[in-house]
Amino acid sequence: MDNQTTAPEVQSEQPTAVVQETTEATAEVSNQEVNFKDLIPESFREEKSLQNFNNMEDLVKSYLHAQKLVGADKIPVPNKHATEEDWKEVFKRLGAPETPDGYKYSFKEEEIHPEQLKAFNATAHKLGLLPQQAESLIKFYNEMSMNQMQSLESNAEQTQMQTEAELKKQFGPQYAKRLDQAKRLATSTLGEEFLNNTLLQDGSRLGDNLSVIKAFSDLADKLSEDEIVKGDGIGYMTASEIQKQIEELTQEGSAYWQKSHPNHKRAVDEVYKLREQLNG
């Protein structure tokens, strides 16, 4: 009876030990870090297209994305051996027009010189530019040209003011006379359009340049009797002549001092203009 009771107890311990060993082995395997590349068949492990994948999730995403592209209209990228015709086909499929006349713009084409626009379209077509690229280039060029023109005009105006101030300082009371004579002589010699539209390196117009005006003024002094220099016979006075006339108009008892005199205002205005001319 004792032997029969002991035997089952020994047999019942064996299954318990097996379960424990299996559980421990499973836990040990699950705790080990799985190398994703070890899951790739050895014959494919060195494929360059697989080198950027470190986990199964990224690989699956890439595969699904590739599947979506299957059947899509794809444009092959020409290699270094591609011909000009190969590139033309690519540009055409991207949206380039068939001919240079196929470029259409949102702005009014008459705003640009027809011949210039025609030449630009021919070059744009040769380069394979898309319509939106061609229009962007035209707008960029127009804006750049306008900014440059505005800058030149601003510089010319500033230089003109500086020249005027310097000439008044140098010519004094003779400023109006000498400037008028210089411009008459310069215009008759070079032409008004040439003087006004020719820009020098310092940003000034030729007709507003200090050195040019002074040169023509000096030449006008030597040709003072010439009809071109004399003009329409406008009278110019020296500083002493102006001062003398002011003294005559402001002498005691003159209309200048008598407010009730009918010529009082006229005398006051004339003296004011003479003093203004004298002071430049």
SSE map:
Layout: H1 2-31, H2 56-69, H3 84-94, H4 114-127, H5 131-171, H6 175-190, H7 192-197, H8 210-222, H9 227-230, H10 239-249, H11 264-278
Uncertain residue ranges:
227-234
Annotation, overall tally of beta strands:
0
Shape: elongated
Biggest sheet, open or closed, and with what strands and sense? none
- The ordered string of helix (H) and strand (E) elements is HHHHHHHHHHH
Backbone structural class: mainly alpha
Q: What is the mean predicted local confidence, pLDDT?
A: 78
Measured by DSSP, the beta-strand proportion falls in: under 5%
What is the number of helical segments per DSSP (H or I, 4+ residues)?
A: 11
Terminal CA distance: 147 Å
- Gyration radius, rounded: 48 Å
Helix content: 55-70%
Describe this structure in a few short sentences.
The chain is mainly alpha-helical and 280 residues long. The protein has a domain at 237-280. The chain contains 11 helices and no strands.
Describe this structure in words.
This protein is elongated. The relative contact order is 0.05. Helices cover 62% and strands 0% of the residues. The model is unreliable at 227-234 (pLDDT under 50). It has helices at residues 2-31, 56-69, 84-94, 114-127, 131-171, 175-190, 192-197, 210-222, 227-230, 239-249, 264-278. The chain contains 11 helices and no strands. By secondary structure, it is mostly helical. The protein has a domain at 237-280. Helix 5 (131-171) crosses helix 6 (175-190) and helix 10 packs antiparallel against helix 11.
